[in-house]
Design goal:
single chain; 402 residues; alpha/beta; nine-stranded mixed sheet; eight-stranded mixed sheet; 19 strands
Length: 402
Amino acid sequence: MGGWRALLEPEVRDFIVSHQQDDVTALALKKPPRADWPMRLILDQIKARQKAARKIPQWLAIEGIVFPSADLMEQASSWPCALYKASLTCGERMVDLTAGAGIDAFAFSSFFQKVVCVENDPQTAEILAHNFALLKEQGLLRADFRVICADAADHAREMRSFDAVFLDPQRRAGGKKGLYRFEDCSPDVLRLLPLLEGKVSQVLLKSSPVLDAGRAVQDLRCVAAVHIVESDGECKEVLYLLETERGGVNPQIHAVEIGDAGQVVRDFSFLAAEEREAAPSFGVPERFLYEPGPAFLKSGAFNLLAVRYDLRKLHPHTHLYMSDTLRADFPGRVYEILEIRGVGEGTGTIRKAELTLRNFPGTVEALRKKLKLAEGQEHRIFACTIIDGTKKLILTKKIPEI
């Protein structure tokens, strides 16, 4: 018994499903139910299902579906993020040049009549074809689909015209830490894009939030829009919409928080020139303190947020905001300020709290130890620099969402 099709055997499948919530490391130490079972593959499938429970839980209920490697599932989009990105384009025909787990392609199938999935790894391509056929049989996949096992660049060189192309390049293993660029990824987008000229009107690129977005816009040149996507309180991905006929050097930037169905919950759109020209006011802490959500911080609209929401900043480099009157529509968290103290004064009667550093030296762990502050959920303390350059502790409690 070997190969990924062994995962379709009824006994193997029952074992996987019955153990899908188990600790895989502990399970690996136990004797296999049968000596001829491919346990490494089975254990990886259990790990992949555990990741799928967070990414696309509805697929777990589909009998016969097989997930690609756990590593690939870790890199895959979540279903809400896939739905959001799919809503950015539409047409008759699209091609996903980096199909992977197929979650994005599945989402695109609701917006296109034909979807072509290109996958470089033969086993992953076989699994993808199997899954899409299964989804089609059950009426869950509306578009016509085709899976091609090929290198992305080779296919781009030979393909005919499409309405849209999707690319999700992966950072190469062993690369430097921190910010990276598209040339550090596979496939190399900057080498691949010229192969698409004259064949497609829209290209949608997905990247990790760690990719250098400013450099990406410069390198890609024809970026019409940048979408920075927040889901479940985290900045999940950055999308670059390239329109070869329009393009531009001043793309529209959209920071969005999305819900479980990929719908926009909060959004903030602007041009980079607007941020450069924005002139916020500054002041001392007032009654309410505002912390932008992760996507809105990533957008770099540090001054424009203050101007648009009529807030004051604490300091040019402390990206926290304040007001006397509540702005419940702010794209982030809102806190009521209880007290402002010097660092040497400690935290007063608050002995448990979340702790955040903004434009403040050191680490959360070191400051928590110095303040003798335990973890807690009721209060949050911001250690930050205010407008006069002094370091302060701002003691707050979160205002429930309205």
